[in-house]
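Late entry, evening session. Most of the bench is empty. Finally got around to the prediction I had been postponing all week. Sequence below, unchanged from the version circulated by S.P.
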Amino acid sequence: MYIQVKNACKHFKQDGREFTALDNVSLDIEKGEFICLLGPSGCGKSTLLNAMAGFEKLNSGTVEIDSRQVSAPSINNITIFQNYGLLPWRNVIKNVELGLESKKIPGEQRAETAKKYLKLVGLEGYEKRYPRQLSGGQQQRVAIARGLAVDPDIIFMDEPFGALDAITRMKLQEDILGISREEKKTIIFVTHDIEEAVFLADRIVVMMADPGRIKSVVKVPLGKHRDRTGRDFLYVRDKIFELFNMKTEEYIEYYI
């Protein structure tokens, strides 16, 4: 198994009381999978992603990637957040080249690689623009291109489209799904949007809050091309809705 989370526990202190963000969470992820961590606020999905990415230290339990325990962020993986993180004094191509600079890639090769990934995310011709000249969706595309340019093993995405309007969000969902198929990357994607999870994921990890735990892991049997209005899509979406309404507190195996 490529990523293994074993009995992960994480506690925080908040307003004088202890809050359990993760309560004995275990999860196995295969290489090349697109996994969505789905659940309401406070269910621990971002904490779980940050533990896998090496940004969050667990109180107990372990995270292993390729049989190596995660104790810090790795240069082999990248994380894309909701805020785009672009440097305002750099133009688009120079923002995309940022990670390549840290890898000491020569200038001509950096530019060539940056242009390749700007084309992949639909921003060919935008190389000389600055972040202030771009829409929110375009800025997120630059962030995605910057992440892909360093050829990461894993892409961690924490509600990356949450601040965007509905139409832009749907277009970027289509783009990232296409990129994941073309680039064959392992993607861990945090969302609270059920339709987004069904559209993107190979498997959906359904999480519940207080304490943060996995309620179920659901395989999405929809293949590569997904129609949001199709009967199969709506059937899976409705089954996920049902899961959130179930009263059981125990982990359940769920098959669609």
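Two things to note before I forget:
The CA atoms of residues 86 and 132 lie 10 Å apart.
The mean pLDDT is 89.
Will write this up properly tomorrow.
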